[in-house]
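Minutes, project huddle
Topic: does the predicted pose make sense with magnesium ion bound?
PN asked that the exact inputs be recorded in the minutes so nobody has to dig through chat later. Recorded below.
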Amino acid sequence: MQKAVKQPFSNLPHVWLSQELIDMAFSRASKVSVAREAKLPKEAKARIKEAARIQSVGDAIANRLEQVVKGTPRVEAVHPFYAELADLLVDVGKLKKSLAAANWAAQMVRRLHREYLQRVRRAKSVTEARDVRRAFYGRVASVLEQVSADLEFLKRAFDALKKLPSIDPDTPTVIVAGYANVGKSCFVRSVSSAKPEVATYPFTTKQVTVGHRKTSFGVCQVVDTPGLLDRPLHKRNKVELQAIAALRHISHSIIFLFDPTETCGYPLKSQVRLYREIREMFPKPPMLLAANKIDIATGGQLALLRQQLGDVKLWEVSALKGVGVEELIEEAAEAAASFLRKGGEVVRGDRGSGRYA
Ligand SMILES: Nc1nc2c(ncn2[C@@H]2O[C@H](COP(=O)(O)OP(=O)(O)OP(=O)(O)O)[C@@H](O)[C@H]2O)c(=O)[nH]1
Ligand SMILES: [Mg+2]
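Predicted holo structure (tokens), as shared on screen:
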């Protein structure tokens, strides 16, 4: 059975924009009713009523801003996979600045709230009480105006973070990686519950997607990643870096797909260079190499790939036609489960019977 959700951003609070906060709080306050004490003079009644409005606006706004600040997990405290994805998706530095701005606004509203409550209690006439309350509204609106860009940023950032997939780090996880357009998404669709988009052009996949798959070794997570190119890490864009984050933080085994037909648009040599780079960067998790698109690959193309890879096992599959994919995912799940059981400490040369690269 699938375990509890480990996505740390799924319950991020709702972010109210500045204008929404103002409209909500002022409209509520206009409906505030206070007990009518017939014997009180009208100035005293006005003081009570305006104080109640100030109270209502101050609390409604400060509470909502504080909920945003308190409800956001500290990036340092979340799983490193999510910390890295958060930085790639929304820029954590900016996120922290905007949260600090929301916190500042909440404290300012509380301070103004206290200050204007005292003033309204000293008001000598109905008009003065009303003017004090109006001045309070003006100050609050101006504070919110100053943080309106921050709240808009937080809303957008939270929307993006909430959409991140749920990954349970304790469930065996198979990462499907490889060059752009080689058929990774097609493979993940065919073997798991995830249904990522498949298209004829490269860079279709922009985000990590997770599917589940029942195997003889229990349920495993199958992760589709954006396509990589053969280039150094510092030249990788933010989309590619999401694939690197998955490989770095959550992979218990890796299926590396090749397209020997080169219909993906990239030469086999580049694909093999990428494989070597990834193998070097992440030497620990077992890696299963597979030639995809064998429904259209020629014997010569497959032989060339074998020759370039040397003495390692090469699976032959067609993600499109569903050929060989069941066997491959079973084996990858077994490798992932065993890697996870051993605490991720498998080293090169210690992979069962040397079945993998
Ligand atoms: N003939 C054939 N075509 C395939 C096979 N697998 C995938 N394709 C085609 O290859 C193209 C790319 O497939 P995707 O699954 O989107 O490739 P991807 O690796 O996810 O691509 P990016 O997300 O851009 O990196 C699509 O047109 C697929 O239909 C296969 O086994 N045989
Ligand atoms: Mg894809």
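Observations noted during the meeting:
- The chain has two domains: 18-162, 173-341.
- Residues 1-5, 346-353 have pLDDT under 50 and may be disordered.
No decisions taken; revisit at the next huddle.
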